[in-house]
Design a protein that fits this description.
The strands form six sheets. The chain has a seven-stranded antiparallel β-sheet. Strands 5-6-7-8-12-13 form a six-stranded antiparallel β-sheet, with helices on one face. It has a four-stranded parallel β-sheet with strand order 17-20-21-22, sandwiched between helices. Helix 8 packs across helix 9 and helix 8 packs across helix 15. It folds into two domains: 2-232, Aminohydrolase, N-terminal nucleophile (Ntn) domain (Glutamine Phosphoribosylpyrophosphate, subunit 1, domain 1, 4-Layer Sandwich), CATH 3.60.20; 256-470, Rossmann fold (3-Layer(aba) Sandwich). With 475 residues, it is an alpha+beta fold. The protein has helices at residues 14-22, 55-59, 103-113, 128-136, 142-152, 195-198, 237-242, 254-271, 288-299, 323-332, 357-368, 402-411, 419-423, 428-441, 451-458, 468-471, and strands spanning 2-9, 31-38, 42-49, 70-76, 83-87, 90-100, 155-162, 167-170, 180-184, 187-191, 203-207, 213-216, 221-225, 234-235, 248-249, 252-253, 280-283, 307-309, 334-336, 345-350, 373-378, 445-448, 465-466.
């Protein structure tokens, strides 16, 4: 996926943008970049690979050579960003987060009409921010151009544009991703994550509405395009997995949602007589831990950490581009606490079950270290659809998803008709799916959070949430 940060201040903003961008490192592992503007030095930009070392280590030496009272930064899991562009609207730097599913179609339109040509990356793909910049340049103002781009892009597009006199921020038209404005005595900032600016002395001013467009300078916030609160469909997976524990989206804190979610799962097991007789409730680190704490609190079963993740060298297991290497790194990071594993019956809570590969290796690791039983609770419903609104998964086929793969083996192409049944553990198909995943992953028992439980844990109306990856429900 990715995240971004920008600041417009009455003083130099380079350090603020550096630290604010670095606080988004949990959202992407491929590239990081920053761009600044000053009247003396014009536009300055730096982009680095962050696949093998953190963002901050790549830019520390460059900070002294950068200057400006306005600037933007981006952590990206896809394209190098920000990029510098020039059009009839002037010179700008652009970065975006989201996904453009019709990028090839849009590029072909430009080629056919001879309106634009694009530099390609080594992958032969065109940088998504270049496509967005070309769409915006078709109109006579940034506001009109962004509106046009929002309508033409199939997928999700939230962006920051650095101009010579400020920063333009635009939230995607369904608000699937957050953008929040912070303020201080020196000016304003704009960020994906609110906590990214709180340590820098800013206070939250407000979140942008879906499709809202604003321009920020050191002195003011100007609305260029009104937002539509009724269009909100924010990604629920932000709370379940992607968001940092102290992130706040639409007024709901990630950590408290996860704890509440675990309590709801435990309540379900208690009411249905499916609460296992185990020694400890445990969380698969990191995002599974607060779900597990909630489960332990409600069930009365002690919480423990039978293994610890060694993260100083590999903060996230998906950092390597090879799935084989990601799996190996994930296994290498698990350091056992033997007295909490050997001879014990353990119930783990994980944020989700996607492919099942890493979970199977985790379960094997626990048995190798003497676990007697391993039960699993997934903090979200079975993932049935690859996300087409955000670039959060490298899956190229829905058959990469363990639930869909099993359904396809049982039902063939007809299986999609029965997804709702397979999601529900009370149906025969639902029980069959859970039994088969248990067999493949060597689990003693398995249950998934229900969609209603996830929605209840978030606390927003379901109509305001995107649940496509679980339900297949489209806007």
């Amino acid at each position: 996926m990715g995240g971004f940060f920008g600041a417009a201040l009455k003083r130099d903003c380079v350090e603020d943008v550096f630290f604010g961008t670095d606080y988004h490192s949990h959202l992407g592992t491929r590239r990081g970049g920053m761009a600044f503007y000053s009247p003396e030095n014009g536009f300055q930009r730096g982009i680095h690979s962050i696949e093998n070392s953190p963002f901050r280590t790549k830019f520390e030496k460059e900070l002294a050579g950068m200057s400006g009272n306005i600037g933007i930064g981006c952590i990206s899991d896809t394209d190098p960003q920000p990029i510098l562009l020039r059009s009839k609207l002037g010179r700008i730097a652009v970065c975006n987060i989201g996904i453009i599913n019709n990028a090839e179609e849009l590029c072909n339109e430009f080629y056919d009409s001879r309106l634009a040509s694009f530099e390609t990356m080594t992958s032969s793909k065109v940088n998504s921010s270049a496509i967005i910049g070309a769409l915006i340049a078709q109109k006579d103002s940034f506001a009109e151009g962004i509106r046009y781009a929002q309508e033409r892009v199939e997928g999700t597009m939230s962006l920051l544009i650095l101009t010579e006199d400020g920063i333009i921020a635009a939230r995607d038209k369904f608000g699937r991703l957050p953008i929040v404005i912070g303020e201080s005595e020196d000016g304003y900032c704009v960020s994906f994550e609110s906590f990214a600016f709180q340590k820098l002395g800013y206070k939250t001013r407000r979140e942008l509405l879906p499709a809202e467009i604003v321009r920020i300078t050191a002195d003011k916030i100007e609305v260029l395009g009104e937002g539509n609160p009724d269009a909100l469909r924010i990604c629920t997976f932000l709370w379940t997995y992607y968001g940092y524990p102290n992130s706040v989206y639409e007024g709901v804190t990630v950590e408290t949602m996860r704890t509440r979610n675990g309590e709801i799962m435990a309540e379900y097991d208690i009411q249905n007589g499916t609460l296992p007789d185990v020694d400890y409730v445990c969380g698969v680190p990191d995002s599974g831990v607060p779900h597990a704490i909630g489960y332990a609190n409600r069930s009365g079963i002690p919480f423990a950490r039978p293994f610890i993740k060694y993260t100083p060298t590999w903060p996230r297991s998906f950092m390597p581009q090879s799935q084989e290497m990601r799996n190996k790194v994930a296994k290498m990071k698990l350091i056992p606490v033997h007295e909490l594993i050997e001879g014990k019956k353990l119930l783990f809570v994980d944020d989700s079950i996607v492919r099942g590969t890493q979970m199977r290796e985790t379960v094997e690791f626990l048995y190798e270290n003497g676990a007697k039983e391993v039960h699993m609770r997934s903090a979200c419903p079975p993932i049935m659809f690859g996300c087409k609104y955000l670039n959060f998964s490298r899956s190229t086929s829905e058959l990469d998803l363990i639930a869909r793969r099993i359904i396809h083996e049982y039902e063939g192409e007809e299986g999609v008709k029965y997804i709702r049944e397979y999601s529900d553990s009370k149906t025969e198909r639902g029980k069959r799916l859970r039994d088969e995943i248990c067999r493949r992953l060597k689990l003693t028992s398995l249950e998934f959070q229900f969609l209603d439980g996830t929605v209840k844990a978030v606390g927003l109306p379901e109509c305001k949430l995107c649940t496509y990856c679980w339900s297949g429900k489209q806007d």
